[in-house]
Amino acid sequence: MLLTVREIAVGTRETTIKATVTFCGDDRFVGVTPSGHAQVLDTNSDRSTAASPMELLLLALGSCTGVDVISILKKKRQEVTDYHIEVTGQRRAQSPRAYTEMHVRHIVRGRNLSAKAVAQAIKLSEEKYCSVAATLRPTVNIVSTFELIQETE
After folding, report:
1. How far apart are CA 143 and CA 109, in angstroms?
2. Among 37, 105, 106, 116, who pairs with 146 as Cys (CB 3.0-4.6 Å)?
3. Is the peptide bond before 34 cis (omega within 30 degrees of 0)?
4. Are 110 and 82 in contact (CB under 8 A)?
5. What is the pTM for the complete model shown?
6. What is the DSSP letter of 60?
7. DSSP secondary structure string, 73-111?
8. Side-chain half-sphere of 86: how many Cα atoms within 13 Å?
9. How many other CB atoms are there within 10 angstroms of residue 23's CB atom?
């Protein structure tokens, strides 16, 4: 893993990380993350043998907010038994076919769950902790909702 630190004007430190992407032919690439994990990418949407870069953005947002929300709910002593996130996105019709809006639906199952605690966890993730949302937000409208499924003993 390559990490470098450089000084910036206000005296804080900025971390630079490096990923590599190698063309393998036939519209396929292999990306290697800074932590050394390989990911095949397929840019041919008709064939779709691997995730596309735009699909990975959906996963990045969902997993980033998910790790925040579950961590916050644990700290709030919420008894979560299952949790998953559905992320959908709307893209421009013309190139560049950027996302204009993403919908994040949190589905939380557990015992004695507080809707207020879940709403606060999602808000904290969106506004304070999720780096992916912060990166996307200047050009993408992110809309989050949640569903609670209360279990009985």
Report:
1. 21
2. 106
3. no
4. yes
5. 0.87
6. H
7. HHHTT-EEEEEEEEEEEEE-SSSS--EEEEEEEEEEEEE
8. 7
9. 10
Report whether 135 contacts 107 (CB < 8 A).
Answer: no
Return d(Cα 39, Cα 33) in angstroms, integer.
Answer: 8
Asked if residue 119 has pLDDT above 90, the reply is: yes
Which pLDDT tens digit goes with each residue over 35-49?
999 999 999 989 989
Model confidence pLDDT, tens digit, residues 61-102: 999 999 999 999 999 999 999 999 999 999 999 999 999 999
Cα separation, 2 vs 106, in Å, equals 34
DSSP label at 77?
A: T
| Angle subtended by helix axes 53-75 and 115-124, to nearest 10 | 130
> How far, in Å, CA of 17 to CA of 15, rounded?
6
> Domain extents for the chain?
3-42, 53-150
Query: What CATH architecture is 53-150?
Result: 2-Layer Sandwich (3.30)
